[in-house]
Amino acid sequence: MAVLELQNISKHFGAIHAVSDVTLSLEPGEVVGLMGDNGAGKSTLVKMIAGNFRPSHGTMRLEGKELVMHRPVDARQHGIEIVHQDLALCDNLTAAANVYLGRELLIGFGPFGVLDYASMYQRAAQLFKELKSETRPRDLVKQMSGGQRQAVAIARTMLSKAKIVLMDEPTAAISVRQVAEVLHLIRLLRDQGIAIVLISHRMPDVFTVADRVIVMRRGRKVADKPIADSSPEEVTGLITGAIEKV
Amino acid sequence: MFKKDLGLLILILVVGTAVAIINPRFLSPINLSNTANLIGLFGMFSIGMGFVIITGGIELSVGSIFALLGVVFIDLLVTFGWPWPLAILVIVIAGIALGWLHGILITRMHLQPFVVTLCGLLIYRGIARWYTEDGTAGFEFGITFPALEWLTTGRSFGVPHSFVVFILLAVVMGVVLHRSVFGRYLFAVGKNEEAARYSGINTSRIVIAAYVISGALCGLAAVYLAMYTRSISPASHGSFYELYAIAAAVLGGCSLRGGEGSMLGIVLGAILLQVLQNLVNLLGIPSSLNFAVMGGVILIGVLADQQFTRRRQARLGKP
User: What ipTM did this prediction achieve?
Assistant: First the structure.
């Protein structure tokens, strides 16, 4: 059964139709590459799944149940995690603090709870180990390489039992070797049965790791097919409009 | 962060030792006690300033709040004859209300903290002067409040109670800053508000809370300052005091860009500032140079810190 279904989703900002009539579904343990030019509606689509925007029209279903979200926090509660483009990490905090940001572990009761540093360090270290990352939980994020920061951002999504992980350009602005690391992390998540939406401009990344590719152009879905049946040339054509639709 | 605090402690000890060698009166019990009193008075609101600065904000209206709440406090006691615990409560609540107002204007109306609190600085000072018709508010001769005086200007074994209160506040707020979820959110919001919001943190509430805490501490400090000076001329009372607080916080390692700082640093910063003031007095430096000495030391301190940080990072091989 599909973990997430979008049916005829549209989003208008006044007269601007950012997303028009998009229908798609996500299976557990599937990596879907979401591609399209700037302004094609990828980000708007993802922001609706992430609870930032409410769709103007259409319905979303999570595991068969209708999904209505008012805030980004709602998405997290439903098991939808987002890795943001700029990674949304706090440079001044440790890796563990970033992993737990917004859902810290406490010792004590209610308003008198103090941070449970030991448990958070321990669990974060465990997550980094699972990710086979050399990131140390006590290191400050500002001292980290791009790949390590990615590991922190991805570890955040593993803290709760996420069903869907949305990744916005996770391989932009990092070195070639780190890209390989990130793609490896994506596979690790997929092997845990998590559905992953990978938004990327980088054709090779999508073709390396994705099972399926969805192409958007001018707010509409113009392609949705297994990666094996497509080619970078075809996707490029779809993105630019040289190929109308498949 | 701890290294920074250690450096500051060493600086205080070096300056203290130098002054003590040149003028042994620095270590006399009465001088230490007086300096401790000033550290307590100025330290109280420096803690609140530190919280605000960690969120990436600034609170410029501190000095004017002292003038306004100070004259109201004296009026409540002298003219209206309120019992002093009630008067203190009202003043602290008034401080909280002003802090809350600043927070609301900054988060809901999206005004810049500098602008909001600069307007506060002008408005509160103006109201204080208008309220007293630019006269000096003070206690009449013969009026005493033994319990209140003991609490505010009293000393136990030579230790001023203002200093005791400051240390207690520093311990409590230190736990809040470094051990509570709220404290961690302060740092997160200060460095990367967007990331904090994406993590489900109600960033507006955190920022408002920082200004409210600062307001509450300002209210308390207003009472202590009023009892210390015993008379308030609203045109000058507390003027520039916000800069002492900002200086203490910055010396203590708070970054005006937000997201950096520690309670120990703020405490040490407040101590260093008063030791410098004392140095000017004891070494016979013309008191007109007071601000110049303070400015010079802060500048050198911040420069040195930057150089050390750069060198440390160069050693780590990271930009």
Answer: 0.80
**What's the average model confidence in pLDDT over B282-299?**
85
Residues 6+ apart with CB under 8 A from B247: B269, B273, B294, B298
Report the CATH number at residue B219. 1.10.3470
The domain A4-90+161-240 is placed in CATH, from the list 2.60.120.10, 3.40.50.300, 3.20.20.390, 3.90.1150.10, at 3.40.50.300
Per-residue model confidence as pLDDT tens digits over A43-101:
889 889 988 888 999 999 998 888 888 887 788 888 898 887 666 789 899 999 999 98
Q: For B176-204, what is each residue's pLDDT tens digit?
A: 999 999 999 999 999 998 888 888 888 99
- Whether B201 sits inside 8 A of A101 (CB atoms) is yes
In sequence order, what are the residues at sequence separation of 6 or more whose Cβ sits closer than 8 angstroms to the Cβ of residue B53?
B246, B249, B250, B254, B255, B256, B258, B261
| Cβ atoms within 10 Å of A180's Cβ, excluding its own | 14
Residues of chain B contacting residue A114, judged by C-beta atoms under 8 Å apart: 175, 179-180
Q: For A106, which of B181, B201, B260 is closest by C-beta distance?
A: B181
What is the C-alpha to C-alpha distance for residues A97 and A103, in angstroms, rounded to an integer? 10
d(CA B227, CA B245): 20
B115: domain range? Answer: 2-316
Residue A109, beta-bridge partner list: none
| Distances in whole angstroms, Cα of residue A46 to Cα of each of A82, A211, A212 | 9, 18, 16
Q: Are B147 and B84 in contact (CB under 8 A)?
A: yes
Pairwise CA distance, residues A179 & B176, whole Å: 40
Looking at beta carbons, which residues of chain B come within 8 Å of A103?
199-200
